[in-house]
Amino acid sequence: MPTVTVIGAQWGDEGKGRVIDLLAATADVVVRSNGGSNAGHSVENDLGRFALALTPSGIFNPAAICILGGGMVVNPAVLLDEMSSLSARGVSLDNLRLSARAALVMPWHQWQDGKRETAAGAGKIGTTKQGIGPAYAEKALRTIMRAIDLRDADGFVAKASAAFAAQPDEFRDGASLPDFLAAARVWAEKLGPLVQETDAFVRGRWRAADDILLEGAQGSLLDLDVGTYPFCTSSDCTALGALKGAGLPPQAVSRVVGVMKAYVTRVGAGPFPTVLNDETGKFIRRVGHEFGTRTGRERDCGWFDGPLARYAVDLGLTEITLTKLDVLPASRRSSSPSATCSTASARRSPRTSTSPVSPRSRSITRPFPAGRRTSPASGGGTTCRPTRGRSCDGSRRWLVFRSPPSRPRRAATTSSPLPTIVPSLCGPPASAAHELDPAPLRGFFLCKKAGEKKKRPTRRSAYVGARLNPRSASRGSGRP
Questions:
Q1: CATH of domain 1-259
Q2: Which of 235, 350, 401, 443 falls 20 to 30 Å from 190 in CA-CA distance?
Q3: Residue 103 main-chain phi, psi, to 5 deg
């Protein structure tokens, strides 16, 4: 495991903490790369259940160096409280480090966050009011205090006093400057010894071929640049953001593990195409314990969204970890009036990979009576089985398997064009102009070669097309 990045591939809350806890058992260095106390990673092990807001989930491996990376915004008060709680439960903090480049969340950032959300009214984003957005905004203005300032207690108190005085009267009237400065000195005295120039340290361990685990926060669809803007977070939640937050170059990453639930959840405002605002959604929330780790807020639940999953893969995943799969059989056994699958509005728009909120990638929810699947195209009167390459709505679907890893990948040439994504079990149809290089992708993908004539593929081809028929799929055959 040279360098493995674990990121969320949905809107966060996918179960990354559990995955990171498992991978961290063999890691030499674990780096939390982005976000702040708005993210909560739940870990359950022999010591009990933990809800971590800032501390990397690898802290339970006493042999691993755990780093709060330079891409984070750290609330010193929250970090000290979390460290105290972990110590009280027997968790060693000897290997905990704080990057000198990490920004610090101050009380006025939380005040600004809450005030903006309140003033937005019905148009609010739905933040956790932890001050994350204002802190990243001040970081972009290059005026925020950073962790390196904690190394000098007197200097930090002086900077904190000047920053406090620069805040609006409305904030200063409700806060106590002496109490704040006293707390600031405690932060510097207790956290200052943890501050190091971690970027150079991590690069050195990478050159030494040590096992490095990068822990992302939130999810790809909450990324500031490629997520569902403006209903997103303020940090970089993709694999590239994890590398930058840890201080590593792009060529350092070996694997990118995207964590997805077998269904989808979201907190706060923003688009959610497959949301279930009915008893089924409530049942999934109850069985899956879908409540915020930090805030306790109820998460909206919906069916798995194939187009959004494929969009997350396009952003740079090499493999997927699927969690909460056991919740869906319980949902099927419930008294829910219908079972549902998420498909795409294939007849209205071609498949693209632009924005997860684009109409071209919006999915719709099609209900099927519990216990049988009925084709919507047939007016609900015909039972349709997924055979002969057709899905339940009557459209053609293709299943493609990757060749064994031991076989070399086929290089793309002018005579052998790159594969083009075609309709999956949950997704819109392909656009002839959209091409995707399958080389970095591991796992199943649904594709055929652009402009390829209908012919029976051989078993030695890099990608083998198969009808959605269990018998033909097992033989690895079938015609596009």
A1: 3.40.440.10
A2: 235
A3: -85, 160
- List CB contacts of 429: < 8 A, sequence separation 6 or more: 344, 346, 350, 351, 395, 422, 423
| 126 within 8 A of 267, measured Cβ to Cβ | yes
Residue bearing tokens 């000290």: 80
Rank 119-128, 233-242, 339-348, 363-372 by mean pLDDT and report only the highest: 233-242
Q: What digits encode the pLDDT tens for the residues 397-433?
A: 333 333 334 444 444 444 333 333 333 333 333 333 3
Give the three-class secondary structure for 214.
strand
Beta strands (DSSP E) in 152-254 are 195-196, 212-215
Q: Which of 63, 65, 60 is nearest to 47 (CA)?
A: 60
- pTM for the predicted model, two decimal places: 0.70
Q: How confident is the model at residue 435 (pLDDT cuts 50, 70, 90)?
A: very low
The mean pLDDT of 61-74, rounded to a whole number, is 95
List active site positions: 13, 41
Its sign, for the CA torsion 124, 129, 133, 138, is positive
Which is it for the CA torsion 293, 299, 304, 306, positive or negative?
A: negative
Distances (CA, A) of 162 to 141, 152, 167: 16, 15, 9
400 with 389: CB under 8 angstroms? no
Average pLDDT, the chain: 75
